Amino acid sequence: MKTKSFWIKLEESEEEKSEEETESEEESESEEESSSEDESPKSKITKEEVMEIVRQRLAKRRESAEAKRSTDNLRAPVICVLGHVDTGKTKMLDTIRRTNVQDGEAGGITQQIGATQVPADAIKERCKQVRDFTPELVKIPGFLIIDTPGHESFAYVHIFSDNSISVHAALRSVILRFLLWISLYETTFFQSAMPKLSIDRLYGYESNPRKDVYQHLKSQPQNTQLEFKERYEKIVGEFAEQAVNVCLSNQNKNVEEYVSMVPTSAYLGDGIGNLMAYIVATTQKYHAEKLSFCEELDATVMEVKSIPGLGTTIDVILVNGRLRVGDIIVITGTDGAIMTPIRELLMPQPLKELRVKNDYGHYKEVRGAQGVKVLAKGLEKALAGLPLMIAHKEDEIDFLKLEAEAQLSRALMSIKRKAEGVYVQASTLGSLEALLELEWVSPISILPLLKCQHWSIERDAQLFADQEKVKIFQADIIYHLEDNFLKYREELRLKARRENEHLAIFPCKLRILPQHVFNARNPIVCGVTVEAGQLKRGTPICVPSKDCIFLGAIASIERNHEEVLLARTGDEVGTGCLLLPMYIYIIYIYIYIYIYIFIERL
Asked: Which intervals carry biased composition (Acidic residues) (predicted)?
């Protein structure tokens, strides 16, 4: 309201000035133009002052929200499930949710980020069999679990998460990718947990998801316990080689020095309760201050989707603050900042995946931390992976638009671009960053090609690409893009090799076997011994002792009546030589193939 009064006073003062100027300068229009020119610098200064007022107001609002934080009012922790591809991350969440999301993924592999809200009641039900767990002490309203693809290039998701579950298979050795997760989360003030030791793969393991996993392991056969101990000690040793201390969660007395591991089974459900109980205990005990709810908005656009019957929507991870129907949101778009009011707020039922089509509930207000689907106009060109902001006052809109454009500029500046090379296109900024990271960590050279993930290629675009000789790779699975490219590159290499193999000369020394001369005229067919080097088809041959008489090129090579591509030193093979239009007899001479090249290379 103060801003509105400011603008009213400004307009009144301008009206008074205009009346005075009209009374004193009625005779000359040129003087009115000069007076308007004199006022333009003042209006420009006023706009800058308004921007500064807005900046100070937002800073004061942020400080006020931080001051009101209390550990008695906790939000749900945002937990990212990380790990290598195909280790059971989504399957573990399916066990918690009692759903079957993994089977609906392309190739059974998660390609984009998903969010699931796990309420406190579900946590208490899952953890009731865990030893030393007290349901009455659960203060957090639940978990917001983020399911991520297993590629290291998706590591950017740690920016909006509080904790991590890094899934590790007991039958696999430690991968450097897990060290990446740990290094990322050292900056988030939270403990990382490595839960999935795949205890269901232990020989003779008997499942019982209704028991405490540590108590249940003690009741296993002796050979199963020994195998678990052996694999556990191996994992501890591999992490110790990388200067990372790990131990079982029930043995961890120093969470700042040791990373906790919880043995679980994604398929059977064993240990899931222990994992959830451990996260509840550590977050409430060590990180309650960070989990205290803050009214200052902290939200990120996770994905842009078009849903039949609803139009274009955005999936938002709301960490702190509130979203209300009618709020003016400012987000980044491909053509600049987008300002639009929220039309509807949709959320799936608890324990349902946000990215999977569900029966959504309609809400007037949503409080963090939640995964929420926002309906509004003009979201078609919205960019995923950047923050969402709210303009509480009219004069904040222009300021937030500039901030949104600046965020996009900073994101694009981190991407190295050139006029020629690999053109990468993806459905979200997160997937784009992942693909770009994939270009850097993969053995991919620069070629005129286009890579697309989750992006349909129009027929005209494909025809134009074929005309310009630009190769387009399209796949729903990010890992297949790299595989397809490497396969295509190998095909090009083999094709170029076949086309130019006649240009490559491999020096060798041959001795004719006189008893195996089958044809002394065009074509020469005889047996030879390879005394040095290697003999290939297409290799030109000559006789150095006869002034380097050129005989022709090797047309075929046979060994034991079977055609072969090459013969190595010591091989005795039959050769067919295509001659020039001349008659030459060979009975006793030695044939040398580019003998002078052979000597130089030696």
From this structure: 12-38
Give the model confidence (pLDDT) of 481-518 as tens digits.
777 888 888 998 898 888 887 677 788 888 888 888 88
Q: Is 6 exposed, middle or buried (0-12, 13-18, 19+ CB in 10 A)?
A: middle
Total number of domains in the chain: 5
Q: Is residue 126 a contact partner of residue 92, using CB atoms and an 8 Å limit?
A: no
- CATH number of the domain residue 538 falls in: 2.40.30.10
Which alpha helices (H) appear in 330-475, and where do they start and end? Answer: 396-413, 429-441, 459-467
Structure token pair of residue 462: 């494909």
Please state, in angstroms and rounded to a whole number, the distance separating the CA atoms of residues 433 and 374. 23
> 151 an active-site residue?
yes
Judge if 463 and 490 occupy the same domain.
Answer: yes
CA 246 from centre of chain: 26
Q: Are 111 and 430 in contact (CB under 8 A)?
A: no
Residue 73 belongs to a domain? no
- Which of 182, 139, 184 minimizes the C-alpha distance to 283? 139
85-89, 142-146, 374-378, 471-475: the lowest-pLDDT one: 85-89
The string of pLDDT tens digits covering residues 78-134 is 887 776 555 566 777 777 777 655 444 444 444 457 788 899 999 999 899 998 899
Strand partners, 164: 80, 192
| Model confidence at 349: pLDDT above 80 | yes
Any domain includes 534: yes
State yes or no: pLDDT of 137 exceeds 70. yes
Tokens of 210: 């209704």
| Domain enclosing residue 457, as ranges | 422-501
Catalytic residue among 84, 151, 287, 454: 151
